[in-house]
Design a protein that fits this description.
Number of strands: 5
Largest sheet: 5 strands, antiparallel
Number of domains: 1
Strand order of the largest sheet: 1-2-3-4-5
Distance between the termini: 29 Å
Order of helices and strands: HEHEEEEHHHH
Shape: globular
Strand content: 5-15%
Low-confidence stretches: 1-6, 169-192, 195-199, 210-224
Length: 224
């Protein structure tokens, strides 16, 4: 079930418009991203995060999930800046095979990444930064962005310098946990994975909202 409520679960207008965009996977040459029309519920996010980490004591309150790739990796707003609106929170990607990384320091910068013809999975898993400009998404960004246009490389570099602890453990070996790596095939790009997919393989937990975002905001303490 997907829910939209007032306050920090209200869906930003930019994401609502983005939900109407169909991304072309183009046999791996395009963008593997499916935007949602509402945030995943707190229950769905918590369930996914617990399976992803193998830690069933975690909750997903730090994340507002708004999209996925074809294997079930999730794009989310990471609520790490206390008292700031959702659109000012960083965008992160949590891959179905344990990849994770910061994509943009805020939603506005993320729109410019999309305008470059790149999605969260391409940036984090493949470290692609070469622009393939998308005019329609550039127009969407111009309507909603509050930050100037920059290259994807500049956006990602700046974001990761602000939140250096998030990507620690990126591509670490799987920990021993109560879950074993599943061998159930996942849907390919464009087939969707919001319901009925095998749970993700367990991986180290990403930071919680209480963790400091890094040197740009507070002194970093690393992962819990």
């Amino acid at each position: 079930m997907i829910e939209t409520t007032e306050g920090d679960r209200a869906f930003p207008p930019a994401l609502a418009e983005l939900a109407g965009v169909e991304f072309d996977y183009d046999d791996g040459e395009g963008v593997d991203f499916e935007p949602y029309d509402a945030f995943d519920s707190a229950e769905e996010t918590t369930d996914w995060l617990r399976h992803w980490t193998g830690n069933h004591e975690l909750d997903g309150d730090a994340y507002r999930v708004f999209g996925q790739d074809g294997t079930g990796g999730l794009a989310a707003l990471w609520r790490v800046r206390p008292g700031r609106p959702l659109v000012e929170q960083p965008v992160v990607f949590l891959g179905s095979e344990g990849e994770r990384g910061v994509v943009a320091a805020n939603l506005s910068d993320f729109l410019w990444v999309l305008a470059d013809g790149l999605g969260p999975m391409e940036v984090v898993e493949h470290e692609e930064y070469e622009a393939r400009p998308n005019p329609a998404l550039a127009e969407l960004a111009e309507r909603h962005a509050t930050t100037p246009r920059r290259t994807t490389r500049d956006i990602v570099t700046a974001a990761r310098s602000q939140f250096p602890t998030f990507s620690e453990g990126h591509r670490r070996p799987l920990p021993v946990s109560g879950l074993k790596a599943d061998s159930t095939p996942r849907p390919g790009p464009g087939q969707g994975c919001r319901r009925g997919c095998a749970p993700p393989v367990p991986h180290p937990a990403p930071p919680r909202a209480a963790d400091p975002p890094g040197a740009a905001d507070t002194a970093s303490r690393g992962h819990r």
